[in-house]
Amino acid sequence: MRSCPVCQSIQSHEIFKMRFAVPDDFVIGNLQSVRSCQNCGMIFSDAGKMQEAYNRYYASSIKYTADLEGPSEIETKRLEHVYQELAPYLNANTVILDFGCGGGGLLSLLARMGQKNLIGADPGPRPKIATREFDFAHLSLTEFDLREFKPDIILATGVFEHILDLQKTMDHLRSSLDPGKLLYVQVPDASKYECGVISPFQDFNLEHINHFSSTHLMQLFEANGFEIITVIESRSPHTANYLMPVISVIGKRSKQVSPIARNSNSLEGSILSYISASDRRLDQILEDLEKKLGTKSEVYLWGGGQLSLKLLGTPFFQKLRVMRIIDRSPTTRTINGIEVSEKFTDLLPDVPIIIASTLHASEIQQHILGLGLPNPLFQLFQG
Ligand SMILES: [Zn+2]
Fold first, then answer.
1. Which of 85, 96, 345, 347 has its CA at 20 to 30 Å from residue 234's CA atom?
2. Is the pLDDT reported for residue 66 higher than 50?
């Protein structure tokens, strides 16, 4: 069983079990146990797998490099939000290392803002813009040594919620920084998941396995020899009409490790409310679909993302005959034996298409209409 990623305690209890449909070549497993640490109250997911399985999953997933050609408009807004938080801690000569830099969007923005000393580090491929705008180091997120770059600040945005062995990562981050140097971490704020249930269980997915409150992120910093400089709770642009609650912590590498015990049991209560709200939402979606479909049992699903994996894991979808999952950039060939493909020109015209998205449903509907497909289109219940 997984130990607590923040305090390492092995005492935890399960608060929820999430079943997903998974790609047939998937290596992580289709069942996640969402657990609450009995010592510090941190919430985390356990799929019973090792870091190695996650490394293989991320290596085969192209999602994190999809913005190689440059970030989207929303992504740019998200990065600007990060920059605003960072700006007070930077000067023209600051050596900035972006840990988990993906396509390099944040470093590009920093370059535009006049920063000259930029390094990206990521387990994925070297971003195309890397040689022009910043240096790049190819590395594992759990086994690395960044001392040679002499960073003044290491950034990790949208990274810590993915890492199985956070203790190891924190050890290496600490030893990569000289005393007095800074670490900036931004993660989704799990204590506020319940405030924005748009897509059921959107925050419990195959990738997000650490669910932090600000108390837990601070605890992780302090237990690993970082003195807290600032904690910022804010909302970060996520889609055109959704701002996602996030927590940012900046810590200074101190000479000694002097852990201060913190405990927040209120996180479990917030997560339990989130689970009931998500459950209600999922029930509404399925009841509404049942009405819309009537006697039809054959459907196409448009979109092969995390919501589709949850829908396909429900008994309702197991009764339907899903003929194909249409996805613009498929990362797998089959899910539960169902073909996943970008092909849409040979669809049977009478079979309804279910749009498997809540956040982008209208855009996708416009896109499908633009393609001239005659199929009945069903959006998911929006509430
Ligand atoms: Zn704990």
1. 96
2. no
CA of residue 257 to ligand 1 center, whole Å: 17
pLDDT band at 44 (very low <50, low <70, confident <90, very high): very high
CA of residue 8 to ligand 1 center, whole Å: 6
CA of 237 to the centre of ligand 1 (A): 30
How do the domains of the chain map onto residue ranges?
Answer: 12-271, 284-379
Closest of 265, 258, 275 to residue 213, by C-alpha:
265
Residue 27: predicted pLDDT: 65
Per-chain residues with Cβ under 5 A from ion ligand 1? 4, 6-7, 9, 37, 39-40, 42
Output the average pLDDT for the chain: 89
220 alpha carbon to ligand 1 midpoint, in Å? 10
CA 165 / ligand 1 centre spacing (Å): 13
Q: How large is the average pLDDT for residues 7-34?
A: 84
If you measure from the C-alpha of residue 51 to the centroid of ligand 1, how many angstroms do you get, rounded to a whole number? 19
What are the angstrom distances between the C-alpha of 115 and each of 104, 180, 248, 267, 348?
Answer: 14, 20, 21, 38, 54
> What would the CATH number be for the domain defined by 284-379?
3.40.50.720
Q: Select the highest-mean-pLDDT range: 68-77, 101-110, 118-127, 149-158.
A: 149-158
Rounded distance from Cα 216 to ligand 1 centre (Å): 8
Let me know: does 149 contact 119? Beta carbons within 8 Å: yes
Say if residue 53's pLDDT is above 90: no
The burial of 353, by beta-carbon neighbours within 10 Å (0-12 exposed, 13-18 middle, 19 or more buried), is given as buried
Tell me the CA–centroid distance for residue 247 and ligand 1, in Å.
18
Mean pLDDT for the stretch of residues 187-205: 89
Cβ–Cβ under 8 Å, residues 157 and 106? yes
Q: How confident is the model at residue 67 (pLDDT cuts 50, 70, 90)?
A: very low
Question: What's domain 12-271's superfamily in CATH?
Answer: Vaccinia Virus protein VP39 (3.40.50.150)
